[in-house]
Design a protein that fits this description.
Length: 418
């Protein structure tokens, strides 16, 4: 008989621990709220409780030593989430419908990047590290912001607040990428600013954004034809399988990246364009359900692992770094969001909700892991500690308040949607 029959395998401990934390995180909030629980904060805290105290575990899963694992897992989660975000949007036309979204992207996002970069340098980071941190924390998260976004396909919920936050999250993940590359250029540049800024703007801003948008629109149209029109006698939409969503978005993302476009932008526009084909067909709901299940599964594991890695990142977290996350959540995003909302038809309360609920999450993990895999970062430990702290703070503050606050802002005193 094997004398090690009851020996503990670290891998199996991780699997069992993830399972326990995920069940508890989704189950426990139901004792305190009648709404669907916001589990993201509890997943991180549960990972910290389950794995943070086990010797060697935080160091084994820290993104400092294994950035590629975090990069690929978070990349997959964001791709699926962006596609699902596009699929959820029932309508894309309406007077002033996109105005809040454009303002959030064109005004609030650049202001957030500028403010966080300044805070990063004030905290002692290099210029390149501060720019990279600002870019990493710039995008709001399409994965963790379900409570503030529109409902599934065909279920409505297209209130202007939810529409603005949904479309912002769908687009700014891709639009943050040029600023990530800007930080990378600053880190790796061996020549003067003027020698590479033209390449950055023409290739990493204009070309990649344009190609990503084009590829997403074309792929959505083509997949829509394949699903709903070809062959007419027996289209794929007659099947019950949502795996086509996965196949389509992987094809779109991969091909877009091969032609040097931003795959995140393509994934969102593919879902948005596909949704326009046979817009009232029930198959869209099946596609969304399948992609949402994948997204939640990968995200839950990532958040538990992030919690487990926190003890290995804590030595790098100074008060100045924590203040960056606190400032972003409670001051920078709300102030820039309120400024961006000036001139929109939203009420003051509604503007406040849009400005405040800029959830940070999986997208930030991906961007920092991507940068860490590309080159040696001077402030890598500080960057990861700051990002992990900000995500934890965001999931707690935004996650536990979003459901009730957004509901109150979208309904009148009699409970009717405004």
């Amino acid at each position: 008989m094997d004398s090690n029959f009851f020996g503990l395998s670290a891998y199996h401990v991780l699997l069992a621990g993830c399972g326990v934390v995920i069940v508890v995180a989704y189950w426990l909030p139901r004792y305190f709220s009648g709404r669907e629980p916001a589990a993201s904060g509890l997943l991180i805290l549960g990972g910290l409780a389950a794995f943070g105290i086990l010797p060697g575990v935080p160091e084994a899963i820290t993104p400092l030593d294994s950035p590629l694992i975090w990069q690929y897992a978070s990349e997959f989660a964001v791709i699926i989430a962006l596609f699902g975000t596009g699929i959820r949007i029932d309508k894309v036309r309406g007077t002033g419908l996109w105005s809040p979204t454009i303002r959030l992207l064109a005004i609030a996002m650049p202001l957030c990047i500028l403010a966080i970069a300044l805070l990063g340098m004030a905290a002692g980071m290099t210029l390149a590290g501060a720019i990279l941190l600002a870019a990493v924390l710039a995008p709001t998260d399409p994965v963790l912001a379900a409570d503030v976004q529109v409902g599934p396909p065909l279920e409505g919920g297209e209130h202007p607040i939810r529409f603005a936050l949904t479309t912002e999250a769908g687009l700014n993940d891709g639009l943050a990428f040029p600023f990530v590359y800007l930080g990378i250029f600053f880190v790796s540049a061996t020549s003067g600013f003027g020698d590479w800024i033209g390449e950055w703007f023409s290739l990493y801003v204009l070309y990649k954004i344009g190609i990503g948008t084009l590829m997403g629109v074309v792929a959505g149209w083509v997949l829509g034809r394949i699903l709903f029109a070809l062959p007419r006698s027996n289209p794929l939409a007659n099947t019950g399988s949502g795996v086509i969503a996965l196949a389509g978005v992987l094809l779109t993302y991969g091909f877009t990246e091969l032609v040097e476009g931003y795959g995140f932008i393509a994934a969102f526009f593919m879902g948005l364009m596909l949704r326009r084909k046979e817009a009232d067909h029930e198959y869209h709901a099946r596609l969304h359900s399948f992609s949402e299940a994948l997204e939640h599964a990968v995200t839950a594991i990532l958040l538990v692992m992030l919690g487990g890695a926190i003890p290995a990142l804590l030595p790098y977290l100074e008060w100045s770094h924590a203040l960056i996350g606190i400032g972003l959540i409670f001051l920078v995003r709300p102030a820039s969001g309120m400024l961006a909302m000036v001139g929109t038809p939203l009420s003051l309360k509604q503007r406040g909700v849009v400005a405040f609920y800029g959830v940070r999450g999986i997208g930030s993990i991906y961007y920092l892991a991507y940068a860490g895999a590309q080159l040696e970062l001077v402030n890598e430990g500080e960057l990861w500690a700051t990002v992990a702290f900000t995500i934890l703070l965001s999931t707690i503050v935004h996650g536990f308040s979003a459901g009730s606050m957004v509901w109150a802002a979208t309904h009148d005193e009699e409970g009717k949607e405004t």
